[in-house]
Specification:
Layout: E1 10-11, H1 19-33, H2 42-65, H3 69-95, H4 103-114, H5 120-133, H6 165-174, H7 176-194, H8 202-230, H9 235-261, E2 276-277, H10 281-288, E3 290-292, H11 297-302, H12 309-314, H13 323-336, E4 342-344, H14 347-362, H15 369-375
Parallel strand pairs: 1-2, 3-4
Length: 376
């Protein structure tokens, strides 16, 4: 018998606030008044081609130019930048249905995740459903659950070794995408069935599992097997490039996510015994999410607008190229309703804030405001 998620979470709008209804109306009016689509525009199409090129052009050069170990390694580092860019900018919008109003286009572009070693169904369950619905709620948002000896939430089990996590955290961040392309999809496949998140028929589950296997074979075939066969490089040299690629991608993807949710002032609310979270869902999103470096155009371009994370959580089906124009609308509406709209002015300040949180969680200190409030 399948094990279902133990507690069903429900958001209770105890103050009967009209915050999200008002905000949604204003955002909808922005697109109507300016006669523009909420989906991709020319900038987004250009960015898509740029990110895919950043990954695949270095790969083609590796295969065709017969580079030495150094040349192959440098190209692999650039591929890591491309992999992270594809994840943040292309597949992310596609899997949210934000890239296009045409679902077939979204489905096609979501294959950019499959071709770099991931699985769309698992990703949508963890990200679109669990993370976006239960943001920063421990044991429901798997992104902030404990990871081996890492602690990302004050609700997570404390271990003495975690007092050193501020020093070893980047080791775990660097292997994130490597784990994702190797074991994670298989682990989640069975985990989501056990927890009741995968409600497919048995036949559909078999098909999904075969799909994972096929795409993994494609990925490992072109990223490891083909270079080993075609190039004058041994397996160890090829693996050096492969691991370097994922080290770069893992660090970028992990850090960008953490700067939005595991920083000072973001909250980690816990449901009551009946599974109730006494807050409107939209306000919960703003309490648990922080923007960063909103005025940095280069950061905004590369991270796919994820530095406007609060907007993304409120309106995940809007293409991220529109976020900078929407931000003032959200900021003004939040101010009117006395709702926090969190932001670190630079990527540096966000990073330092994250490291302070990681350090305090590692020391089991819960005295800074957001965590103290959420535990109270």
């Amino acid at each position: 018998m399948e094990q279902k998620t133990k507690q069903k979470i429900k958001f209770i709008n105890k103050d009967k606030t009209l915050f999200f209804n008002t905000l949604k109306e204003r955002v909808d009016n922005y697109f109507k008044e300016n006669n523009i689509s909420q989906h991709a525009n020319f900038t987004m199409v250009f960015k898509t081609l740029f990110m895919l090129s950043l990954y695949f052009i270095p790969y083609v050069l590796i295969i065709t130019q017969g580079y030495s170990t150094l040349g192959m390694w440098l190209c692999s580092l650039i591929m890591g930048l491309g992999l992270a860019g594809i994840g943040m900018s292309v597949m992310h919008d596609a899997n949210h249905g934000a890239y296009s109003s045409n679902m077939n286009i979204n489905k096609f572009l979501s294959l950019s995740l499959s071709i770099v070693g991931g699985d769309n169904k698992n990703w949508k369950t963890q990200h679109n459903f669990l993370h976006h619905t239960y943001t920063n709620i421990y044991n429901h948002d798997k992104d902030i659950d404990n990871k081996i000896i890492m602690r990302f939430s004050p609700a997570g089990e404390y271990k003495k070794i975690q007092k050193f996590q501020v020093f070893y955290v980047f080791v775990f961040y660097s292997i994130m995408s490597l784990y994702w392309t190797t074991a994670k999809d298989f682990v989640q496949y069975f985990q989501f069935i056990k927890e009741g998140h995968n409600r497919e028929s048995k036949a559909a589950r078999v098909k999904s599992f075969i799909t994972i296997l096929v795409w993994k074979a494609v990925y490992w075939g072109y990223i490891i097997v083909l270079p080993t066969i075609l190039l004058d490089l041994n397996l160890g040299q090829v693996l050096l490039g492969f691991l370097s690629l994922h080290m770069v991608a893992g660090l970028i993807l992990s850090i960008v996510f953490q700067l939005a949710h595991v920083v000072e002032d973001t909250q980690f609310p816990m449901p009551n015994k009946d599974g109730g979270v006494e807050n409107e869902w939209a306000i919960h999103q703003l309490n648990t999410t922080a923007d960063f470096a909103r005025d940095n155009a280069l950061i905004t371009f590369y991270v796919g607008g994820l530095n406007f994370q609060a907007i993304h959580h409120l309106f995940p089906q809007i293409c991220h190229v529109h976020y900078p124009k929407i931000a003032p609308i959200i900021e003004q509406t939040a101010k009117e309703f006395d709702v926090p709209y969190l932001c670190n002015e630079s990527i540096g300040s966000a990073f330092l804030s994250h490291m302070r949180v990681i350090s305090k969680l590692g020391k089991n200190e819960t005295t800074f405001s957001a965590i103290a409030n959420s535990m109270g």
